[in-house]
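User: Could you walk me through two proteins back to back? I'd like the raw sequence and the structure tokens for each, with a short line separating them so I can tell where one ends and the next begins.

Assistant: Of course. Protein one, sequence then structure:
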Amino acid sequence: MDMFNSLEKILKSSDREFRSLFWIDKISFIKLYELLNNDQIKISHLLIFFYFIKNYPTMDNLSFQFQISQKTAKKRLDYIRGILLDFSKDKIKDTDRFNQQPLIIDNKIKIYSVLDTSLFPIRRPTHFEEIYYSTKHKKHGIKYEVGCRISDGKIILVSEDYYCGTEHDLEISRKSGLISNEIYKFEENEKILADKGYIGESLFFLCPKKGDRENLSKYQKEYESIILPYRQIIENVFKDPTAFSYFYEADGTPKSVGTILKNPELAKTFLTLTTHGADAFYQGEIAYAIINKIHTHQKNPGLLTTQDLLNYHAKIRQPVCSDYKAWRICGFPPPSSGGITIAQILGILESKPLQQDIAQFKPTLIQHDTR
């Protein structure tokens, strides 16, 4: 692993190769290394940790890859895990849930947070692979239990340990101990929102799935109509909480017509492009953010690299134009298919009398078709 023994070498390395070995993209790795700001942590120590959670090798294989003893490999692995846990404890606090208005059910039950497990894909392990394979997600992975605020998806809880992909959410919750009166410090009448996998646990208020009415208690049925929309929070908050909170209310419903949407991050991007020009889109902070977003997508991570962006050049091309009755219609040329497609459609329609047909169309359809 000498090819990654310095930040300079990591920056020059291939994004695809780095991520294939260490689970995390190289920009996020560098940011984390700098964020930890710990003189005791060497780059190789952090690489060992991320190589482990990407590949789940035996200690023998881990020691061979990094040319150290098995004892040293385990010691460094445990050390980095401890550092990251201590770091996360300072940044993630369950008391942050009180910095929002709770969801109130029946004028009594207060809900500040939603809980679920999140699966992080890993390479197929060389040993005990069956315990990491999640039949639900159809991939090998490890699970962490994560709790988020109900209003904006801010993470307020993360389990200290990881769990195998085969383990059930409720089993993980019982093992993690995150949700208990001793640790979580419940307020009076407070419950946590969760799905039907947590049925039977008194600390949770369930969000039943459609089609399971026969399995629900009378109490759950009574509130099903109120709680069902909140299922969207569980399904969306772990995908992209930033986008979700921008377009949806805390209850999972779209924001109403007339709502003023403010996007300071987009404004910052526009200001950067105005100040530094188009190059700022293909390199620097904006480029790193694009690559990181693509690489960290939970369901379908991409392979775009910073070098791909640097190599891209916008080309000036001649438009594709065609005549339609009295008009000259122009559109984008190949490799875009839009311009040619429109020209073909209009060519077919040109010989047909459309005046009567158009008069029968609804204005909304005409408006939509002419965009």
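----
Protein two, same layout:
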Amino acid sequence: MSDNNNNLINKLQDLTQQIISISSTLKSQRESSLSSPLHYNFFNLQNLFIFIKFLFIFFNLFFFIFLIYLQKRKVVKETIEMKIFNKTEEQLIKEQLEENDNTNTELTQQQDANNNLKEENEQKELKEEDNERNVGIVIAHPDDEAMFFTPLIQSLNEMNNNLNNLNTHNTDSFKNKKNIKIHLLCLSSGNANGIGKERIFELEKSCKILNILNQNEHVKVILNNNTLINKDNLINNNNTLINKERMKGNCIIIEDEELLDGMDKIWNLDKISWLVEEFVEQNKITKIFTFDKFGISNHPNHIATFNGIIKFKLKTLQKQNQIDCYQLITNNNIFRKYSSIFEFVTSLHFNNENTITLFTPQFLKSWKAMKAHESQFVWFRKLFILFSTYTYVNTFTKIE
């Protein structure tokens, strides 16, 4: 019995030694394989696969953005032409046809009315083209144009580029179309911190980046509504020029005691309405873009700008000289407000015939324009330019 036990113990010892030997052999082979070139290449290959995977994801993302941009280039002309410049004419024709149907007039009378209406629309369109299709953007402070309205400005500039290319190739349908000229009215110099003069210079730099001003043009500043000076404060103009053309220009800044920058300042709405009316008449503006009743950030100066435009709109209705005014829709949803470029897809989902959605993926233009406002280009505004939807998307509705 003891011999059997001894044999069993010996066998177990031999088996244990064999297991230990195999284990040490496998360990040595594993260590040698880790240091071998073959394993090293395999390890790099795994990293390469991971890198290719992420590269593929980012490629698809940027390809998707690029496709959206191409689609945007395709529809920007139609959006601006049909929804902004021709929308009023279409509504008039539709209303006239509905009125004719309701009154049960004869077919010949309908045709005569429609023909007369078409002639009036053609004359109005020719008049707009004679006015060079001037567009006005009314803001409250220097830097508003860079923070909120760059998709609109870039879309209008791109429309001009398309028209220039088509005119170069003598395209019949566009040979009579004139460029869209942008005029900016800023209702204050942003002098809340005593740096109004500096911010005037910054707005001029921004407008040149956004092609609102040519390199040899300057802003015009209206001081207390009675003196017109240039940006260097060297030229005082005579009273005749002040009365007739003081508000004529591509970039006008108002410095008035009743329109002081500040969260606690109450603006004179009648003064805004009067200034906008003068701005529109002297620059022959046919379309105006501004804030909505929420003012993007509930800023009281932005809201006052909108309310002043409303008073101007009511005044033009009384004079039967209607000017189309559009408001920039405020995104009250925090996720949509800072969803950056992806807001374009959401905006298209909620888009309808009464809204105008303009898109640009070129945030560098907004960044450069905002960077021109050096006194305001602090860290949280840098984040705003990167993630705000207003850097990429503008959605407007018509003020009725």
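Confidence is low (pLDDT under 50) at residues 37-42, 226-243.

Let me know if you want the two compared in more detail.
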